[in-house]
Each structure stands twice: as structure tokens, then as C-alpha cells.
Batch of 3 targets.
Target 1
Amino acid sequence: MFRTNSNHIQQDIFGYDLSRMNEIYTKIQETAEYCFYETIFSNIDEKIFAPLFCQDNGRPNAPINAMVSALILKEKSNWIYDHLFKSIEFNLLTRAALGIFHLGDMPFNEPTLFNFQNRIKDYHTQKGINLFESIFNNLTKEQLKKLKLKTNIARTDSFMLDSNIKSYGRLQLLIEVILRIYRMLNKSDKKLFSEHFQKYTVQTSENYMYQIKGSDLPHEFAKITELYYWIKSNF
């Protein structure tokens, strides 16, 4: 018998069948994302990142294992930040990979993750210590055991991850300078030169970075280098 679907009209996104949720959770445990949760997320030593934070005052930090895992997952999947955060909020497999098993939980937001990245970058610059290298060194033995059976999770290179974090920081700084130069122009010059600046002036430097994949960084540096050369030649 044919009938139309009208169930969507009365929406209850938090209503669920407990037996169905248990069935879904059982299926999740068989996925590569859950293997990521067991192999990487569950073995991250958060104390490695303790030097990035004040020990005796300030607000508690967001979950380190979730942020580190999110950055690894982003690079592994070559996602932009927007895709990462949509996946964290709405994709059950991504949430499982990051140890988020309760609907409605969101362990950190975009500015918190960017701030965490900047702390890692600054620490490496000041101390010469790649914290991601320490993480992967601790994970290697456990990974080798798991990956003999589940080879669908590749080992992410800690140096590439660390390098991309630094590159994101450099690119955002270069864009911020472009925005400040543009704000210094008078109205007629802004109108005259808007075509050259338009790519960067429609949003903040931080929002621009949310749209960049790790694989896009070389191209982005090439484009902004051209603009810097144009500015030097014309001002």
C-alpha cells in the first residue's frame, strides 16, 4: 500500500529508540573511526601539552585529547576547518573517533582550536619541541599492534602536521597585514583597488582560514605572494 511520508513534520531530533541506538553503537565499533578512537584518541597523553597552559589560574582547558585527535583527523582526511566542525557536530562516526558519545556535547569551538594551534606553534618556536612528535612516539607500539589487523588507518606524519599548523599561522598573519593595509586606504583607493584585495576583505582572516585545506596551503602562499609584490610595486 502506498503512503506519503509526513513523519518529518513533527520533528524530535532528540527522540530515539534505545535498542536502535545500541545497534548503531555496535556497528560504530566495527568502523575505522572507532579504531581511530581506540588506537589514537584513547592513547594520547594529555600531560604532554600541560606546559602550554597556566598551572595555577585561568579557566580549565578544553579536552586536549579531543583537540589533538581533531587536528590529526583533519590532516588525515584533508578537510577544511568548516568541514571538520560540521563533522564533529553532526557525524556520528567523527564524534566516535573523538570520544564524543553523547548527543549535544561539543568539546571545543573554532577559536579554541585555533588558539590551541597557536600555543603549539609558539611552544615549538620557543622550545624547539614538536609536541606531535612526542604523541606519535608514544602511539607507535600500540598502532603497530592494531594496524596489523586494521590497516585502513595510516600513520599521520607528525612533522607534516606540525608544519601545516605553522603554515596556517603564517598565512593568517599575512592576511591580517593585508586587511590592515586595506583599512588604511581612503574610500577612492579602496574602490580603485578593490579587485586586488577582494579575496581577503570579505571576511576576517580567521574565517578565511576556516576554508583552507592543508593541501591548499602552497597555492594560498603563491597567491598572497603575488598580492604582496603588487602592493610593493604600486604603493
Target 2
Amino acid sequence: MSDLYYSASDRADLDEEHDRPPLSFAQEQLWFFERMTPGTTIYNVPLIFRLRGGLDAGVLGRALTEVVRRHEALRTTFGFANGSPYQVIAPATPVDIRLDDLSGIDAGARDAEAIRLVTQEVRTPFDLNRGLLVRARLIRIDRADHVFCLTMHHICTDGWSRGLIVSELSEVYGGLAGGGVPALGELPVQYADFAVWQREWLRGEVLESALRYWEERLAGLPVLELPTD
């Protein structure tokens, strides 16, 4: 077992209900906010690219499938039992990319229609209980001009990991387009392993020490009065 994180093979030994790994504290915060405001899109994280030149939509779909297969967090939804949420990690399956072909409409209207479709995509909520929390939409302006919209929920991505996902997607696409195979190695640790480690670590004296620190720092502050709707 690593001193830093549990490995995927250790997860079952550490969690009595290992088929229901807990949420990390960051995930639990976002899950709670979603429960408070169901149907919100404020936590949608869109990545939008204008791709000029030759593009193989089939290869792009295979590349995205590989990246989602590689990262459990991208195929995780959330259940609820015994008063607590838990992670539900789906098996890897092909990821569909929705294709909208605008090449048949008036050229002057294509960009405006692409913006409308991207806005529609970004403003569509996710359901944390079912389905992938990743959606992909490819808009064909013409044969050598596309808009690619990859939308994820913040519960499965953040600012740092977005760059990683884009980098891996580009690398896998390039490898597949060249007739090769993805060269990315398997990950020794998945996000659920980190969540289990975090829950195990932040307890007992570590937790008590953190609580004491913040109680001292916040002591004497006035109650914050915020306007409500």
C-alpha cells in the first residue's frame, strides 16, 4: 500500500462496502449543492474547440472512449443509501459523439447556428444519478471546419484535470489517426482510491486538530447576514 494513496487493488480491503466507494469531500460538496438546486447547469464545465483541417469523427469518438475508459471519474455517477452518497463506477463502454452537420445550410448562417447549438449543449443539465457526466458534440461547419464541444460536470473534473483530458485526447487521437494504438499507460490510482484514502486519513486526531484550528481562527466573528430570495 502506498504511503500517499490506496491502489485500486487495495480499495476492497479498506472499504467494507467496496462496491460503494465514498465521495471525496470536494465531490460531496458539489453533490450537496446539486441536491439543493436540481437541474442547475452552473457546474457544467464546457470545453469548446474550433478545429480546422481534416478531422475523422470516428477516430475522435474512439479517442474519447479511450480517455473515458482510462479515468474512472469520468464514468462515475452517484447513488444514495443509509444516509450517505456513494460512487457508482460504470464499466467502460463506447462514448457517443453527437454530430450536427451544418454544411447543407446557408454559409452565412452556419456560425450563428453553431453558437446556438453549443449554447444549447452547455445549458443542458446533467443527472448525477445516471448516465455519463461527460457529453460530446461535434458540429460540422464544412468538410474542413468543425466545432467540438466537450461538456463535463464539475464533480468529475476541475481546472487542472481539464488540461490533462485535452492533452490525452489529443495524444490518443493522433496515435489512432496514424494507425497506431494509444500509448498511454494504465493509471495506478483512480479517483475513488483517493476518496477512500482521504476519508481514512481525515479522522481522529487529524480531524480534531483541523477543527480546533478553524474554531480558533473563526472565534468571535459576527454572524454573516446574507439576503435570501
Target 3
Amino acid sequence: MDRFWDGGRQIDVIVVPGRPPAHYRAPVAPTPAGARAKTVTILSGVPAFDWCYGCSATSAAMASGYYDRGSYGNMYAGPANGGVCPLTNTTWGAGECPLSATHQGYDGLGVKGHVDDYWVSYGSTAADPWIGNWTQHTYANCTGDYMGTNQSSLSNTDGSTSFYYASNGSPLYNYVAPAGHRDGCHGWRDFIESRGYSVQTNGNFNQYIVEEGLTYGFSFSQYCAEIDAGRPVLIQVTDHTMLGYGYDTATSLVYLHDTWDHSQHTMTWAG
């Protein structure tokens, strides 16, 4: 983690490089029934994609796909499933999802996309393939483009996305990173706006959780409020991004898609 000062604020830079471990199989978390179900809220219709060229871009793609299946039908504009974002990425094959990272030959794309321009191999620090060889494509149609995922010109290795946090735990709204860098949350906002939608002024931010012992912090009750409002939340753990889309107040559980598979999983808040 790097730190620097920006306008009187101390800012932390966290690079998220996570990818599935070999032969990973996490236990599936069923939705509880009966009395306990009264304490549980889970958003329905949230896609589950396995890892597609970066866990952060994949998690943002799942959230964008959820919005596409609701009131924001231009998040995904490809031909699959009649133009409505599928609930899994099996349509394109394991490790492929045009809403996360466009790829020539997938989803009807006849020109170079994100994967063609920016991907070498997981963890690669080499210059992106387009540099010195052809003109990179114009950002379009995928979260990875706008979030800076995989892009060496934005200081990310293959598989990585960078996020910026206020060191004291206060929310860092729509942060514009220094030249040559990109905050993933700011980039996700750019993606949403590229699809023709607006984002509230304080509608996107990075924030440490209150359990980190900082002056400020995002709480479990705030997370629950986001879910109640119909907004999935990117959950950051060490070296990995997941998508939270539900909760259980009785046990402080977060229901999530972990980008490793298409199943429902849980973790304890701050666990």
C-alpha cells in the first residue's frame, strides 16, 4: 500500500490483484428459511460471473448487470439473452464476460477490445500489447476499460485495479487519481455515465470500514441501507474484490458473489 498527501488529505492506494486459487471450491451458502429468514434481505436478479480479467472489473460488471436487468437496460448492450444481461457468463465461456472485459471474437465483437489491447498474462508487468503496435480501442461497453483494470499505462499489472482511500476512514468521493493512475470506483462511475446514465454527486465512494479503528468508517448498518435501497456494494478484502448483495442482521453476514464461481457465498462483516 502506498500513501501520499493530496490537498491536505492523506490518501492510501490499494492495488487489488486477486484471481481464483487453483481448484478453489468454497461452500455454497443457502438462503435461510423460516424464522431466521425474517432477518435476511437478498437482492434478486444479481448476476454471478466467474473471474473475467480482474476481480474488481468482474464485481462491477455483476452490479452493472443487475442494474441492466432492472431499470437501467443499457448497461449491457450486446446480443446475448436478447440484449438483457445474462445471470451467468456461461454464455461466453469460463473467464469471459464482455461486460467486464471486451474481447475480439466474443459477443459479436469483430474488432480489438479490452483483452486484445491490455492483456498479456496474469500478473504481467509488461507493456500492454497495443503500445508501439497499434492504436488502442476507444473505451466502450466494459467496466475494465474505464476502471483502468490491466492497463500498464495506468500503472496496473494484468489482473489488477487500483482504489484510493482516505487514511482516516472518511468517504473518498469520486476520486480523480494523479496522471498515469486511475481509481477503480471513479472509473466505474465513468462506465455508468458512458452508458447514458447519471450518478449522484456523492453516489460513488471508497471507504474503510469502521472496524478498522479509524476516526470514521463505513458500518454494517450503512451496508444494509445500501442493499435496502437496491444497490449492491463492492466488498474489498485483502487482494480481492467481491460483490455484496445481501445481509443477515441476526448474524452480521454478508451475502456475496466472490467471482470464483456462480454460487451464493457468505462472510461475516469485518471477518
